[in-house]
Amino acid sequence: MEQIEHSFEVFYKKYQPSLVHFATYLTHSSSDAVEIVNDVFVTIWHKRDSLKIDESLKSYLFTAVKNRCFNFNRQKKIETLSVFPDETKSSFTADGLLLEKEQHSKLAHIMNRLPPKCRQIFAMSRIDELTYGQIASLLDISTKTVEAQITKALKICRENLKLK
């Protein structure tokens, strides 16, 4: 058990700083970022016996932190809206929900056709709005690799959009 604890501590010390930096970028709050990253590590520790990671540990951690940050930001937005309900204008249209659902479905379909690493890099660029340099730094790859993966993703997206 002591060996597992030591391994976990080593892996925590290795990844925690870059994960906090990433989470701070996504949440715009260093204190919330530290809490989110620590929650991810606590969750991993509690699930250590049953957790199956199919990708690299680093990718898994960044994805888990990204998802927690998105959930945090979504919850923060909901809380803000409930505090100031009269200040928001409705963008409701009769077919708006249907169109939005259809767009999400198309995007999910296209994203699922991308190879895993390509999908991750494309999401970091287009959804998380990270620069190629930031992505390269976070994933410990070259900027040229990021460019190549984005080019590949865009080509696949174009091909899939032409089919529709």
Structure write-up:
With 164 residues, the protein is an all-alpha fold. The protein has 2 domains: 1-85, Rna Polymerase Sigma Factor, Chain: A, CATH 1.10.1740.10; 97-164, Winged helix-like DNA-binding domain superfamily/Winged helix DNA-binding domain (Arc Repressor Mutant, subunit A, Orthogonal Bundle), CATH 1.10.10. Helices cover 77% and strands 0% of the residues. It contains 7 helices and no strands. Helix 1 runs antiparallel to helix 2 and helix 1 packs across helix 3. The radius of gyration is 19 Å and the shape is globular. The termini are far apart.
Q: Which key phrases capture this entry?
A:
7 helices, mainly alpha, 164 residues, 2 domains, single chain, Rna Polymerase Sigma Factor, Chain: A, 77% helix, Arc Repressor Mutant, subunit A
